[in-house]
Amino acid sequence: QSVLTQPPSVSGAPGQRVTISCTGSSSNIGAGYDVHWYQQLPGTAPKLLIYGNSNRPSGVPDRFSGSKSGTSASLAISGLQAEDEADYYCQSYDSSLSGYVFGTGTKVTVL
Amino acid sequence: QITLKESGPTLVKPTQTLTLTCTFSGFSLSTSGVGVGWIRQPPGKALEWLALIYWDDDKRYSPSLKSRLTITKDTSKNQVVLTMTNMDPVDTATYYCAHAAYGSGSYYSDYWGQGTLVTVSS
To answer: Which of A23, B39, B58, B91 has the fewest CB atoms inside 10 Å of its own CB, making it the most exposed?
Structure first.
């Protein structure tokens, strides 16, 4: 099982704001390692959404934002759109595992 | 333009060894700070990080799979190879390779291959 825990699902109406949490521990997020976020649309490969806790790669809308505090991180999607319906994963490094770990994943549904 | 593509068998038998090749273009694995990683995803399940090889040939493996995994690189061919021994039906998954960039203290995967589905069945 993953060491990064996310809610299985979140939902919201178009235009609303939703947030996805990523809860870790003192050996990963709490140790200061950065958190990255990926979006996976149905049937496609994951796409980098946020890197270094809060940085957006070129081309990613500013509706997506990331933050980190203590042993947790969050991804916020504002102005929710139908095209945002996808699975979202957080990722970080874990010093006790000496490797990278993904979160459990969150399915976002646009009502 | 960075691209990656996975290749290998689509079907393997239990106990066999899986060999997957990631062929990439648009970057060199001899460039400082660059890495290539492997990630898999069982049908309907979450992503699982497997291994990462760095430009200096340093390697990292998932602890739970470390005894079964080997990652190597051929810089001249722009390829990274992942081998996984003693395959089991639970290893059925889509296997992705990805370019790993270093920034803000850790690596992240900014370019991904399309993935290849590997089924383990007799």
So the answer is: B58
